[in-house]
Request: fold
Amino acid sequence: MPQPHYRDCIEACAAHYGDDAAAMRAYLLEGHDRAMQLDNRGPIVFDSNGNLEPSILEAYRKYGFYVFTGVLNSDELQDIEADLAALKKRFPVNPGDKVAADGTPALGADCTAPTLVWSKPLGDPLGGSSLANGRHQVKLHEPKAADDAPEMAPFILLGSLQFSEACLRVYGHPQLLKIAEEVNGKDFAPFNETLFIKEPGIGAAVSWHQDGTTHWNSDRFDEDIHGFNFMAQVYGSTAVNGVWVLPGSHKLGKVDITELVTASGSERIQGTVPLVCDAGDVIMCNRQLVHGSFANTGFEPRITVNMGFHRRSSVLDVMGAGTHNDAQVFDDALIAKRSEVIGYGIDARRQRFPEETPYVYQPFLERGLDYTWNEAAKSSLHDYNALDLSI
Ligand SMILES: O=C(O)CCC(=O)C(=O)O
Reply:
């Protein structure tokens, strides 16, 4: 479990915090230790009825997150890495450029729905801004990047499944979809899919926030109403480059983060722990948890294949938050259209891993729908994230 260079990364990170270096070092070390003591990690286990082992759901509900170990095998990780390398070659050199470095059309250049989100290296572009409905209430420390760092770099890719078949196949993972069913019901609905790109020395911070927007004052409010994200890790995740969370905060309703920071005496919110895990592990993270990540001042990359799921009742006929796409009402037809990617994910996975038993999605069964992953399906995913179920 110890990450390679784990202590060196912590030292490198602390060194970027000036007078706060000692406090940052202690925060990282103590947070790591506390995270490793929590009883919320292990392989995916189903009981004899095919349901998720109850103790796993209990721990998830208690802390608001669970680390599933060893979910993606080395073949699958290699597929993702190959896709990532190809994607990076297609990134525009500067925000808004229509071509990549080699002069070919840039990734997303022909998309109307949002794709790449950029930041200055080690910046915190969302913190303290009105972006994403102003949910990132404070700005985190923006360490100084190396002189040879690029001026701007992509740190989020929205609508990622239209660009990466390997990520689409993770989305179709039968055990993960079964877990989505257990938490959100057999008729669960998608949310969105993204890549978080945290290259060492470059990767931006994502300031403390809770993800939900629309349901904080709902009569039906509960800890699951804004859904959850799976965060599959391509290289693992550490105290330095990973997401930090405040365990149990998914039950608290809307939290005043500015007040938490003030009470903690710094941006190092007391009681938080990092999501620490290895390559191939998948974290399930309640969207209502207070969470965020610091700029990646360590030596290791973190790439998260993020994919979220909702209860149908949380999205059906609801006016969206407009956080990830234009705000719109999610009627049954829109949800059905947005759910097609589940069918394509399941079939793309079946083609690559024929020895697995594919997941059966109840709404497709009820409606007699069947999806085949092929070139036509691929084209149909263009701009699919314009229908993200953002709440
Ligand atoms: O991966 C990160 O650094 C941030 C993730 C996050 O904020 C989210 O998934 O809502």
Summary: The CA atoms of residues 208 and 292 lie 4 Å apart. Residues 196, 206, 211, 229, 243, 291, 293, 304, 306 surround 2-oxoglutaric acid (CB under 6 Å). The longest strand covers residues 189-198.
